[in-house]
Amino acid sequence: MAQSSKNRELYPNAPDWFYANIEYPYDDRYVTVSNCKIHYLFFQEQGNKKENLNKPGLVFIHGNGAHAHWYTFLAPFFVKDYNVVAFSNSGNGLSGWRDMYPFSLWAEEIYGVANDAGMLKHYPLNKPVVVAHSMGTIVAMALAGLPAKIKHFSGFILLDELPRPKGYFDNFEFFPVSTATRRKPRTRHKVRDKSISVRSRFYLQPSQKVMNGYLVDWVADHSIKFDDDELSWTWSFDPSKYMKHPKHDSFPSNIINYLSIENVKQIPVRISFVVGDRSAICNPSIIDYNRTVLGENIPINVLHDSAHHVMLDQPLALTACIKGILNEWKRSKISVPSAANKRMDINMAYNDPPISNRIHTKGAYENRTEPITWKTSKSKL
Measuring CA to CA, which residue among 135, 145, 162, 79 is closest to residue 111? Predict the structure, then answer.
């Protein structure tokens, strides 16, 4: 069966651009970073080998529990102007597993992949841009803390994650569950027979309305690995990953330590945020807070009718938004945000009550009030 016909059976009712993009040629590659094999996908414009030699790089980084194929259906949109890679951090996708997962080492993997893909050979010209989603934004910010590595990159586009006010995580749980239903951390995945569909076991976290079923099916289908005889499967990510973070890199310390207002203002590269207007992670209060303290020169772009998983909810709008940011950076002389924002007082008081945020569960929108514990106006943030 031809590849196109097979994909139309696997992902019916998808738009033509989806089939064209998932069938676009790419190289499956591996590079070893600190004794661990890292898997990445490498995309270039077909038939333009000479021109591709001088194109800048674009590096896509996935979120928590995800993998490189979350971007397979988007990457071809960018090959005319960029050499593109999407990779899986160690412990995810087809990459190797480690004994520990410090964010600084995940950040080293960004550099290792970009270097292996030839994106750093023109330094200090044509420096690559990083596009990172959710937990991947923390990985990108960890890279910003490595002076010898971050100097090789020119900008970050961070998807659906923002700095939080100090005190935000006091007595805070993203996904509260009763003690009776709380599970112990897993040390290995359940092995399932191949007759059991991965799609029936796959779900988005945080839960939300499925906007485009074919995209969710695509990432689900690439989230597993089969045994040697292909009779059974398990999830591809390391089930012990969450227990292998150093203490300062565990949630929520990782957000506090890396994605802080201070770090964003001092970052030595250009930076822009893209968030969903229905996101459970970046609700309107968080967006408003960041716009207040970051100022006008660090844009926060809001995608309408999108929750946290912006590439699954609004793939074409996200593509247009990323291209708009990249084009503006090419045109603009603004290189870094810090100098332009010195006038903003990072310790300004900011007080806001808890906000109701819509989350799609079990087929209906339900209201949930997040336990935000921001300090009073007399306290420093």
Answer: 145
Strand ranges of the sheet holding 83-87, from the earlier edge strand across to the other edge: 27-33, 36-43, 83-87, 57-61, 129-133, 155-159, 270-276, 300-303
The SS3 assignment for 35 reads coil
Residue 160 in contact with residue 154, Cβ under 8 Å? no
Number of continuous H segments (helices) and E segments (strands) in the chain: 12, 13
Bridge-based pairing of strands 232-235 and 300-303 is unpaired
Residue position matching structure tokens 């969450």: 242
Q: pLDDT tens digits for 315-354? A: 999 999 999 999 999 988 654 554 434 433 433 333 333 3
Instruction: Kindly report the length of the chain.
Output: 381
Look at residue 235 and tell me whether its pLDDT is greater than 70. yes
* Measured distance CA(34)–CA(326) in Å, rounded: 31
DSSP string of 288-340, one letter each residue: HHHHHHH-TTS-EEEETT--S-HHHH-HHHHHHHHHHHHHHHHH-----STGG
Adjacent-strand bridge partners of 357: 368
Which pairing describes strands 232-235 and 192-193: parallel, antiparallel, or unpaired? antiparallel
Which residue do the tokens 């990159």 mark?
153
Judged on CB neighbours under 10 Å (0-12, 13-18, 19+), 367 is exposed
Cβ neighbours of residue 359 closer than 8 Å, sequence gap 6 or more: 206, 207, 208, 280, 307, 365, 366, 368
> Tokens representing 296?
């006008």
Q: 3-class DSSP state for residue 41?
A: strand
Q: Give me the mean pLDDT over the 54-78 stretch.
A: 97
**Which pTM value belongs to this model?**
0.85
| Inter-residue contact 169 to 256 (CB < 8 Å) | yes
Structure tokens at 322: 């990323």
Distance, in Å, from the CA atom of 244 to the CA atom of 102, rounded to the nearest integer, reads 8
Q: Using the predicted structure, report yes or no on whether residue 2 has a pLDDT greater than 90.
A: no
List the structure tokens of 103: 């964010």
Contact predicate 233/225, CB 8 Å:
yes
CA 367 distance to own-chain centroid: 25
Give all domains of the chain, ordered by start, each with its CATH number. 15-369 (3.40.50.1820)
Q: Supply angle C-alpha 149, 257, 36, rounded to 5.
A: 50
The predicted model gives 231-246 an average pLDDT of: 92
